[in-house]
Amino acid sequence: MTLRRHHHSNVWIYQCKVGNRTVSRSTGQTYRKKAEREISRLRKEIQLLRARPNGLPTLSKAIVDEVALIERDISVQQARRCDWALRSFVRFAGHGDWTLDRFDSKFLEDYQRDRLGTPQKRGRGHKRRRTAARATVVKEIALVRRMFGRYGIVLAKPSPKRGRRTPHRVFTQDELRRFFAACPPRYQTLYQLMLATGARQAELVPSTQGSTHTPLLKKEVDLSHCTVTIRSAKRRSIDDNEPIVRTIPIAEDLAERLRREMDATPGPFVFLPSHSILRDFQAILKRAGIEKIDVAGYKITSHSFRHTWATWMGRKIPLLTLKAALGHTTTRMTEKYAHIEAEGLPVVDVASVLMAEVNEGRDATGATCGCNIVDMALRASP
Question: Is the pTM of this model over 0.85?
Answer without folding.
Answer: no
